Amino acid sequence: MKTETVDGAVLETWTVDEVQSAFDRNEIVLIDVRTPQEYMFEHIDGALLMPMAFFKAGKLPGQSEKRIVFHCGSGVRSERVARAAMDAGIGLIAHMEGGMAGWKAAQKPYIGTNMATGAPQKVEAA
């Protein structure tokens, strides 16, 4: 995990493996900031959707029980949203390095779309 301190707030950048481990242990809330269309096509099972276009830092839950980790397609939008959360006064926030592309490259399980039927389907790790 990489950390960066900006004006007293801490931005953490987690690896895909760190996110999966913490998510599997129910220690984090994983928030997908991609568009609804991207999320419907493929997403990490159990991740919540809060598109960047509609992001409101004040509506985020507290982090007393679980840390918030954002993710997107590549890591760019999630870092932007994490920095916006910091600007809104959240002192500790995280995002996943590499986004969904990194998750898939690491062969982590996710919900994809069956191209023959259009139905969601689990895509398991290889």
Protein described:
By secondary structure, the protein is an alpha/beta fold. It has one domain (2-123): Rhodanese-like domain (Oxidized Rhodanese, domain 1, 3-Layer(aba) Sandwich), CATH 3.40.250.10. Helix content is 27%, strand content 29%. The protein contains four helices and eight strands. It has helices spanning 16-24, 36-41, 76-87, 99-105, and strands spanning 2-6, 9-14, 28-32, 48-49, 67-71, 92-96, 110-113, 120-123. The strands form two sheets. Strands 1-2-6-5-3-4 form a six-stranded mixed β-sheet. Strands 7-8 form a two-stranded antiparallel sheet. The radius of gyration is 14 Å and the shape is globular. The two termini are 25 Å apart. The model has no long low-confidence stretch (mean pLDDT 95).
Show the helix and strand layout.
Blueprint: E1 2-6, E2 9-14, H1 16-24, E3 28-32, H2 36-41, E4 48-49, E5 67-71, H3 76-87, E6 92-96, H4 99-105, E7 110-113, E8 120-123
Entry summary:
The chain has about 130 residues and is α/β, with parallel strands linked by helices. It is built from 4 helices and 8 strands. Helix content is about 25%, strand content about 30%.
How helix-rich are the residues, as a percent range?
Answer: 25-40%
Distance from N terminus to C terminus (CA atoms, Å) equals 25 Å
Shape: globular
Unreliable residue stretches: none
Number of helices: 4
CATH topology: Oxidized Rhodanese, domain 1
| DSSP strand content | 25-35%
Radius of gyration (Å): 14 Å
Number of strands: 8
Question: Could you say how many structural domains there are in total?
Answer: 1
Strand order across the biggest sheet? 1-2-6-5-3-4
- Secondary-structure-derived class: alpha/beta
Note the main sheet: 6 strands, mixed
Helix/strand order = EEHEHEEHEHEE
CATH H level: which superfamily?
Answer: Rhodanese-like domain
CATH second-level architecture: 3-Layer(aba) Sandwich
User: CATH class, please?
Assistant: Alpha Beta
Mean pLDDT: 95
Protein name: Rhodanese-related sulfurtransferase
GO molecular function, one term: thiosulfate-cyanide sulfurtransferase activity
Keywords: Transferase
Domain Rhodanese: 24-112
